[in-house]
Amino acid sequence: MIVCIAEKPSVARDIARVLGANQAHDGYMEGNGYQVTWTFGHLCTLKEPHDYTPMWKAWALSRLPMIPPRFGIKLIDDKGVAKQFHIIETLMQKADRIVNCGDAGQEGELIQRWVMQLARAKCPVSRLWISSLTEESIKEGFSTLKDQSEYQSLYEAGLSRAIGDWLLGMNATRLYTLKYGQNRQVLSIGRVQTPTLALIVNRYWEIQNFKPEAYWVLSTIYRGTTFTATKGKYGTVLEGEQDLQKIVGKEFTVTDISEKKGKEAPPRLFDLTSLQVECNRKYGFSADLTLKLIQTLYEKKLTTYPRVDTTYLSDDIYPKCPKILQGLPAYAALTTPLLGAKLPKSKRVFDSSKVTDHHAIIPTGVVAGALPPQEAAVYDEVCRHFIAAFYPDCQISTTTVLGKVEEVEFKATGKQILQPGWRVVIKPAKNEDEKKESDKERDEERVLPHFVKGEHGPHEPSLAEKWTSPPKPYTEATLLRAMETAGKGVEDESLREALKENGIGRPSTRAAIIETLFKRHYIVKQRKSLAPTETGIELIGLIHEELLKSAELTGIWEKKLREIEQHKYDAAQFIAELKQMVADIVREVMNDSSNRRVPATR
């Protein structure tokens, strides 16, 4: 008998239906030589400190660091989990072969491997690796099963991540709670959680310590268009007034007009982070909500596997794209023009070298029925980005007009869309104009009237006092981007892609990290912005160990975890380095003779 184990009952039912295992039993389906069972996500976890020795049950500084000689796993303490595990164990003990049907990623590999280890499975194990839950994808996956050994490095990376989080979380949390928490406040420290909190706290202090400075801008209105002095900002009002007096009552003359044509490529397809960013920006969805919605769409077979960190498709997806587009009847007005000819194949979209475990999030081509409003919004974003990927570039024309009054020069810039291309598919949100970051951005988006070189006439000059602005607080969208690039503010898509390797956390865990910071009362939401609480500020303030709070240094650890997955780094070395790091941190904190304390959460 072949035993298949999936990560959820709903996924198991989909697989059982395809395999012909239609006979329902308590905890599994059976038929056609298969038994299909399931977990409920994590059934197992790493053992807790007191499971290794009773000495570690009580929290005491003298017993730190806690470093087990060998890490072990145990069942999560839950009656439902225990019952389901007993069913799985019974099936696996009698199995001729096991097929690991867990989610095709690092966490999914870890979940099922731990279950098989605890169940003492001895038979050969194969791996099902699929990117969608459609019948076609499941059949194709079972026809190309691979031996579990091919995914050993994926498991080692997941195990290293879990052990690393245990070592740092268990030791640092007890260490800081006992040393600084006044025995009233548990100070939760995490390998990714704490650097993420530090990003928010650091931004808070940048804003608090910001000293606004006045500057003056000289501009003039000619034929309804605002022109700005090319000198830029004036440091003193006197300097600005001098130029203003020179031009009052004099005519404005257009001295030069230049036009530059350009292209804007379609936006990239979604990875999980960019989808979360877009849904937070457009709809105000939290990262956690977007993850839940796209996971539901995946389980409804409408979109592909969501927990991905690439915006590319592998080349083998290209032949399937016409059929996917045909499966989007609600978008027929947009897809019909594409289906009459060969689809373009852009390197910005199709590049197998940029795809490891999974490709970007796209529709599956299964026709969608009525969806709840929030699911429909996320599905619409995924579909429109996929369709837009095959549309032409947007053709634009950027016009720069130079003018002069006496010796003071002015400039106005505007953009005109000549051919909308992909912009007919993805239109800006209704309040998009309000979200322009600066006057400069808004000016560059405007369309200028027709000017002729040499024309001249009256104008309306003015000198405006302005003030420098502080950095903006993080929103969930900008925090996700900061986590993705280890705190580096990067807008350029290609540069951001390059920095992903050193991002902190995984796409699938970043939403949970942000939610944890809320639950710990380390951050709060103020309208759309994220702000640290007093406890969060104090906690980061008393952490002197950069390894605990630096996004950049944590990004280096994340890179090593990815290298373990890619056979480029040794898992044992990673664990050894973490053990040494934990020992060093314990020693440093124990030697701290200051009287720093964190106030209790209010």
Question: Explain this structure to me?
Answer:
The chain is α+β, with helices and mostly antiparallel strands and 602 residues long. 41% of the residues lie in helices and 17% in strands. The chain has 21 helices and 18 strands. A seven-stranded mixed beta sheet has the order 2-3-4-1-7-8-9, with helices on both faces. A seven-stranded antiparallel beta sheet has the order 15-12-13-14-11-10-16. It has a two-stranded antiparallel sheet with strand order 5-6. It is flat.
Percent of residues in helices comes to 40-55%
Judged by helices, strands and strand pairing, the structural class is alpha+beta
Strand arrangement across the biggest beta sheet: 2-3-4-1-7-8-9
Low-confidence stretches: 433-438
Rounded average pLDDT: 92
Strand content: 15-25%
Separation of termini?
57 Å
Shape: flat
Question: Sheet with the most strands?
Answer: 7 strands, mixed
Task: Write a concise keyword list for the protein shown above.
single chain, 602 residues, alpha+beta, 7-stranded mixed beta sheet, 7-stranded antiparallel beta sheet, 21 helices, 18 strands, 17% strand
Brief description of this entry?
The protein has 602 residues and is an alpha+beta fold.
Q: Any chance you could write out the topology, listing elements then pairs?
A:
Layout: E1 2-6, H1 9-19, E2 23-25, E3 28-31, E4 34-38, E5 44-46, H2 49-52, E6 73-75, H3 79-94, E7 97-101, H4 106-118, E8 125-127, H5 135-143, E9 146-147, H6 152-180, H7 193-208, E10 214-222, E11 225-229, H8 237-247, E12 252-264, H9 272-283, H10 287-299, H11 321-326, H12 332-339, H13 373-388, E13 394-405, E14 408-419, H14 439-445, E15 456-457, E16 460-467, H15 476-484, H16 493-499, H17 507-519, E17 523-526, E18 529-532, H18 534-542, H19 546-549, H20 551-565, H21 571-590
Helix pairs in contact: 4-6, 6-20, 6-21, 9-10, 9-13, 9-15, 10-13, 10-17, 15-17
